[in-house]
């Protein structure tokens, strides 16, 4: 005989292990269907969500020019460009000018009105993309003045709101407009940000004739430029720098085609990151299924492992053989998940079209899919390493005697360390991939905590069952015994169902509380109306008119300007590092005001309020929380650009602002002398708690008739819009969360099925000892119900805590525990455990005793 | 005089912990010469299978020394002993323990592959032919009779050409006629290759075919009488 043992090199060992693994897998994948499904689901959720997000952002990038309306866009609030600025813009290329403002469109007879987002364009519009109207009309015919009326176009929504048809006439400000066409596509809609109301597209001449544009009116002027030749990113950056250098105080915000819809892109990013975390939870829940499947598989392979060892295989070799098998099986799940994830942008395209104003670019997004695959591999390894490590330690003596390896026994140190290391890497990657690291860290921490606590809950339930007093009912006694006996289902059922249910309870509570706020609590506390663009000359007359129309109401009015923070302590805000939660204050224009006295809904947190007749250097009072987030303190300076002028003010005080009061609140309140002489309009709120819908409608109508330039926003309408958005977001969140629940149910059904195999033996023995079918069904039902109930109670407690944290601490809204969520959770847990449990047990009870007994 | 291939000296072993612990081997000493056939007999629970595991390096002893094929096994790691076993010890089990997802040929090739044999499948094919199974190489264990499965197991144990062949009740799961054929095969191959054969059995007839019998009772060797020559 030849071939004495020679030491094998590592690549050879691996090749041999791969060969052995492939031979081992000839037995098929029957025990791995749940494993594969769990991994596929989680990978599909993560890959799909990120692919869809990338398809939208790719759409934004691809359509950058038409979304932006030009190659580069300059925006100004409340003022048009100066001649010098215009000359600069014209020097760059072809300029298209537009003006945006909110206003009230009224029927000619004054019987009804609707809030509109008016957008006035010039003849050059659009520079890119196509304006589509129905019917398609030449520009002069669409917008020109004819028979005493300018032309305009609006989407179906406005026609529906006012109950009119194309050809109808409406009034805007003091002029009449004829709605000559339906607006089908407005190419640069996405870059205008989120609109509360339907668009009304008209000409600049028409807007100017309406009398709505007054000094201080909240108008946004946009100048979109088509550059003469194709420009690179560097060219665009250079133009920005030139503009900033030539007009340092212009106060314009400049965007290029590379960043056409920043708000949309940022929201898509944030939302997809959140959904990725939810998807990752689904994957982690599925990880429990992976661990169960690997453990069951390796249990069945103990004889083979011991045989390998008796024939000279090392423990490490055995480990590699089975690791390869598990990774190959996970690879199948990952592949299936990636295929589903890759298809999602195509499937989501139609659904997205209704609420994202951007054509999503459908395609395959390798980076999104790679991230999902990486998570899939890491979850597999994190959950499979411990059972694999235990398999490595199966002694060859197992062939001689059934010593067994205890399920709870930990494998040797390196495997435990490796599994823990991979779990940490998984958590760090999840946090790293997320934009908001703080939220991601809390989320990951919560999942880890829930995981650990669920294990403890499982053990506690078993401990309680072990120590419960002996009961008279045979069924209950059997049930309690089943809960704590060795190899009981309790730990795996509590863990698998608990994670999914907890996530669902958390999301249901956040969603429910938000809706309660929007539907009930907020409208009760909020004012009934906001009035925007009340001119200084008419503010007193307006106040008297409203007092007459709503005698019991309370009108609050404040001066309102728009301004953008450009420097903090003399440093350009672009160069200041600010945490994400405070970044919104520095982004774009903010409403600002001035006041002699501390506003009603604020309290002083630090510093002093200025005297009523103060006339020194400009001072500002900053909202305490936002100041803390940005890192501002008393004595720091803030420079804001208002109406093209940079104004620097020193922070004199910090205020606690009750944002949730929905009254007029500003981040920054300046000393009155800061804006002396600056043209501005007023913002007012009217609170009439007892007003009926009819009274509100009458008041809205009366104000619009008498003050056509004043824009009136009914708070209930605005909240309806918010509610609709919450509903759409909620649908997406629920869809992804349901993936976690499906993973939970898969794992649960797998655990129950594995338990049922052991149960055949128990049931047959009990039957031979005289137990009736009824007793056994009652015992199994009670067992499943008790475990399900314990899991539901934990899910309610943990989900309630997480929901409270998000609602009360992150969103700063009143949080309530919702009984309907509690009831639904308990019912879901019981239906799932008892339903799945009994479905399997039914087959168990049908087994004939003899064949089983012969094999005992 | 050559050194015995098996040398156990004052070997003790306790299995289990605490109240459930059992003192299985109590100061066992045993020497077996190269090429000798030894049958270990004794009632259930006497420690004979455990003794076999100690010989195969599958069980570590608490006290005493274990020297097999000239190598001291005490203090070696599990993986070192596995490699040692692959080279020096072939095992035949009562329940065959073939790997169900591998063909007969692949089962026989496993120890050769693990040992880095340059052509494991050709060698495995020769071994299968030697036990009369050249027609069954591509069959899976489930497709073979009990006797055929045990022949595959013997071929697998012989394949690396070990110095010691250990068999635990090799005919225990077979009918009388098949059992006799398997025993014939086992003894013939051991003698042909000059291997040391140690087998555990309850079957007095099988034990009597060994040159030497070792009787165990309560973890101790009762007697080690030399018997007549191994029947052909």
| Count of runs of 4 or more consecutive helical residues of chain B | 7
Mean pLDDT of chain A: 83
Measured by DSSP, the beta-strand proportion of chain B falls in: 25-35%
Helix content of chain B: 25-40%
Query: How far apart lie the N and C ends of chain B?
Result: 26 Å
Average pLDDT of chain B works out at: 87
The CA-CA distance between the termini of chain A, in Å, is: 43 Å
Number of strands of chain B: 10
Could you explain how this protein is built, in words?
Chain B: InterPro entries: AAA+_ATPase, ABC_transporter-like_ATP-bd, ABC_transporter-like_CS, ABC_transpr_LolD-like, MacB-like_ATP-bd, P-loop_NTPase. The complex is a heterodimer of chains A (856) and B (232). Chain A is of the alpha+beta class and 856 residues long. Chain A is 55% helix and 17% strand. Chain A is elongated and about 100 Å long. Chain B has seven helices and ten strands. Chain B is globular and about 50 Å long. Chains A and B meet through helix 1, helix 10 and helix 11 of A and helix 1, helix 2 and helix 3 of B.
């Amino acid at each position: 005989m030849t071939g004495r043992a020679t030491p094998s090199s590592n690549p050879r060992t691996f090749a041999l292990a791969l060969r052995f693994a492939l031979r081992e897998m000839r037995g098929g994948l029957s025990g791995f269907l749940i494993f594969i499904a769990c991994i596929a689901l989680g990978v599909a959720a993560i890959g799909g969500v990120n692919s869809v997000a990338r398809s939208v952002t790719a759409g934004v990038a691809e359509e950058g020019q038409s979304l932006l309306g030009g190659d580069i866009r300059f925006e100004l609030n409340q003022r048009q460009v100066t001649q010098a600025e215009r000359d600069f813009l014209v020097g760059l290329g072809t300029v298209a000018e537009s003006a945006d403002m909110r206003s009230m469109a009224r029927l000619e007879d004054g019987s009804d009105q609707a809030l509109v987002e008016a957008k006035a364009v010039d003849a050059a519009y659009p520079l890119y993309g196509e304006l589509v109207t129905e019917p398609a009309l030449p520009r002069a015919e669409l917008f020109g003045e004819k028979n005493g009326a300018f032309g305009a176009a609006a989407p179906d929504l406005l026609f529906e709101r006012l109950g009119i048809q194309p050809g109808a006439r409406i009034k805007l400000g003091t002029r009449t407009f004829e709605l000559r066409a339906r607006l089908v596509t407005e190419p640069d809609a996405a870059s205008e940000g989120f609109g509360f109301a339907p668009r009304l597209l008209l000409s600049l001449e028409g807007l100017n004739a309406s009398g709505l544009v007054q000094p201080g009116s909240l108008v946004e002027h946009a100048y979109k430029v088509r550059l003469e030749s194709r420009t690179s990113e560097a060219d665009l950056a250079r133009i920005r720098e030139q503009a900033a250098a030539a007009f340092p105080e212009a106060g314009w915000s400049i965007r290029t085609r590379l960043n056409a819809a920043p708000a949309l892109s940022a929201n898509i990013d944030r939302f997809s990151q959140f959904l990725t975390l939810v998807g990752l939870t689904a994957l982690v829940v599925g990880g429990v299924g992976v661990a169960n499947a690997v453990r069951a598989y390796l249990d069945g392979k103990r004889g083979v492992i011991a045989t390998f060892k008796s024939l000279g295989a090392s423990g490490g070799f055995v480990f590699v053989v089975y690791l390869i098998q598990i990774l190959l099986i996970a690879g199948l799940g990952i592949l299936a998940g990636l295929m589903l994830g890759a298809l999602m942008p195509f499937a989501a395209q139609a659904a997205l079209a209704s609420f994202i104003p951007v054509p999503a670019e459908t395609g395959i997004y390798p980076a999104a899919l790679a991230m999902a695959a990486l998570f899939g591999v890491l979850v597999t390894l994190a959950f499979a390493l411990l059972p694999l490590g235990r398999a490595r330690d199966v002694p060859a003596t197992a062939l001689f005697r059934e010593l067994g390896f205890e399920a709870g026994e930990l494998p040797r140190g390196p495997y435990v360390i490796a599994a823990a290391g991979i779990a940490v890497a998984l958590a760090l990657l999840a946090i790293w991939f997320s934009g908001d690291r703080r939220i991601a860290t809390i989320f990951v921490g919560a999942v880890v905590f829930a995981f650990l606590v669920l294990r403890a809950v499982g053990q506690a339930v078993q401990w309680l069952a072990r120590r419960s007093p002996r009961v008279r009912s045979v069924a209950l006694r059997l049930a309690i015994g089943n809960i704590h006996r060795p190899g009981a289902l309790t730990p795996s059922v509590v863990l698998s169902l608990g994670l999914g249910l907890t996530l669902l309870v958390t999301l249901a509570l956040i969603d429910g509380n938000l809706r309660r706020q929007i539907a009930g609590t907020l409208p009760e506390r909020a004012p009934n109306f906001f009035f925007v663009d009340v001119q200084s000359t008419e503010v007193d007359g307006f106040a008297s008119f409203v007092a007459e129309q709503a005698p019991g109401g309370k009108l609050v009015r404040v001066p309102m300007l728009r301004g953008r923070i450009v420097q903090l302590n003399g440093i350009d805000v672009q160069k200041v590092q600010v945490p994400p939660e405070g970044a919104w204050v520095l982004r774009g224009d903010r409403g600002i005001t001035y006041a002699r006295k501390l506003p009603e809904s604020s309290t002083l947190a630090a510093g002093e309020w200025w005297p009523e007749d103060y006339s020194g250097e400009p001072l500002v009072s900053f909202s305490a929380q936002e100041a803390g987030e940005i890192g501002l303190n008393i004595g720091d300076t803030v420079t804001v650009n208002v109406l093209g002028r940079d104004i620097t003010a020193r922070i004199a005080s910090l205020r606690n602002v009750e944002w949730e009061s929905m009254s007029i609140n500003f981040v920054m309140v300046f000393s009155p002398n800061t804006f002396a002489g600056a043209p501005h309009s007023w913002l007012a709120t009217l609170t009439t708690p007892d007003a009926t819908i009819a009274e509100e409608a009458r008041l809205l109508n009366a104000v619009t008739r008498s003050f056509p330039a004043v824009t009136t926003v009914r708070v209930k309408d605005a909240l309806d819009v918010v509610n609709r958005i919450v509903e759409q977001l909620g649908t997406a969140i629920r869809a992804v969360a349901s993936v976690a629940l499906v993973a939970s149910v898969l794992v649960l059904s797998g655990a129950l099925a594995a338990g049922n195999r052991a149960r055949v033996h128990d049931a047959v023995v009990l039957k031979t000892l005289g137990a009736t079918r009824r007793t056994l069904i009652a015992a199994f039902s009670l067992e499943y119900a008790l475990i399900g109930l314990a899991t539901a109670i934990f899910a309610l407690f943990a989900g309630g805590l997480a929901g409270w944290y998000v609602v009360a601490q992150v969103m700063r809204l009143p949080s309530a525990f919702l009984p309907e969520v509690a009831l639904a959770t308990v019912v879901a847990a019981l239906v799932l455990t008892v339903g799945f449990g009994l479905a399997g047990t039914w087959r168990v009870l049908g087994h004939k005793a003899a064949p089983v007994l012969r094999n005992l | 005089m050559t050194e015995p291939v098996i040398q156990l000296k004052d070997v003790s072993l306790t299995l289990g912990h605490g109240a459930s612990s059992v003192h299985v081997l109590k100061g066992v000493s045993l020497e077996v010469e190269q090429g000798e056939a030894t049958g270990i007999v004794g009632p259930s629970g006497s420690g004979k299978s455990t003794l076999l595991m100690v010989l195969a390096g599958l069980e570590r002893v608490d006290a005493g020394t274990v020297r097999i094929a000239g190598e001291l096994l005490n203090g070696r790691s599990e993986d070192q002993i596995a490699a040692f076993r692959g080279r020096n010890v072939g095992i035949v089990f009562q329940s065959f323990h073939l790997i169900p997802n591998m063909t007969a040929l692949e089962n026989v090739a496993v120890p050769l592959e693990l040992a880095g044999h340059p052509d494991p499948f050709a060698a495995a094919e020769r071994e299968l032919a030697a036990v009369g199974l050249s027609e069954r190489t591509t069959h899976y264990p489930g497709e073979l009779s009990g006797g055929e499965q045990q022949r595959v197991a013997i071929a697998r144990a012989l394949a690396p050409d070990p110095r010691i062949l250990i068999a635990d009740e090799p005919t225990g799961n077979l009918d009388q006629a098949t059992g006799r054929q398997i025993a014939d095969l086992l003894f013939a191959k051991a003698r042909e290759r000059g291997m040391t054969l140690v087998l555990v059995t309850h079957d007095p007839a099988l034990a009597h075919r060994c040159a030497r019998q070792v009787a165990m009772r309560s973890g101790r060797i009762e007697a080690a009488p030399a018997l007549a020559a191994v029947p052909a």
